[in-house]
Amino acid sequence: MITIGDLQKIYRMGDVEVRALDGVTLDIAKGEFLGIMGASGSGKTTLLHMLGLLDIPTSGSIVIDGTDVSQLNDYEKTMFRLYKFGYVFQDYALVPDLTVMENVSLPAMLRKDRTEEQYHDASIDILTKIGMLDRQDHLPRELSGGQQQRVSIARAIVNKPDILFADEPCANLDTENSRMVLDLFRDINEEMQQTIVMVSHEDWHKDYFHRIISLQDGKVISDGTTGTKH
Ligand SMILES: Nc1ncnc2c1ncn2[C@@H]1O[C@H](COP(=O)(O)OP(=O)(O)O)[C@@H](O)[C@H]1O
Ligand SMILES: [Mg+2]
To answer: Domains in the chain and their CATH numbers?
Structure first.
């Protein structure tokens, strides 16, 4: 459960002030597949970065599973990200010199509670699930965009994070690959009851979301559940 209260993020550039988030108040339930929509510049990425502890709000509160995250120091934030969150970005963000297997294993390796055998097995499971096991020794550049995004999703979920954050994960994909990514999100949401917070500006993605909030100028202008099963 995520509780967001009156969240503000103001960027100051010289004399100019940009209110990227202007008083966002929102609860996100466990297991929800939430879509954040809105025009370019409306504050979607900023909101995702605040929730994912990738950036610090100017004011307001974020409480995640009972923890007021503003009280965490940098080390605690890193641990929170590593143990609780997974991230998928629009540009895949794979490490170019690491193989598929190494990329996927990376977040599992960084955790101190896994043996090598455990994270290797977890990576094999997830690569099998996304249909990329036969590419485990390939480098990212040897894969198509859709395949790279599937690998980045595998990396994001290998630790079975409570919350998956995705910022326009289909932005560089064609419809077929976009559908594959969204189907994968729907599967992991249903199988693992994983909370997914996904930014999108494609209308047809709405079919996948349980609930959609729309942002405009850093404010929530609509918030509604869809007919999609939850
Ligand atoms: N690092 C930054 N410095 C200054 N302004 C920024 C920065 N990041 C975002 N902004 C501004 O904040 C607003 C919201 O940006 P963003 O959250 O990236 O929107 P979206 O993801 O919806 O396109 C925009 O006006 C953008 O220009
Ligand atoms: Mg954005």
So the answer is: 2-93+162-225 (3.40.50.300)
> Which residues have C-beta atoms less than 6 Å from ligand 1?
11, 13, 18, 20, 38, 40-46
Q: Is the pLDDT of residue 118 over 70?
A: yes
What pLDDT sits at residue 226?
Answer: 83
**Residue 114: pLDDT over 90:** no
Long-range CB pairs of 211-215 (<8 Å, 24+ gap) are 211/32, 211/33, 211/34, 211/35, 212/34, 212/35, 212/36, 212/37, 213/26, 213/34, 213/35, 213/36, 213/37, 214/37, 214/38, 215/24, 215/36, 215/37, 215/38, 215/42, 215/43, 215/44, 215/47
pTM above 0.85, yes or no: yes
- Ligand 1 centroid distance, CA of 45 (Å): 7
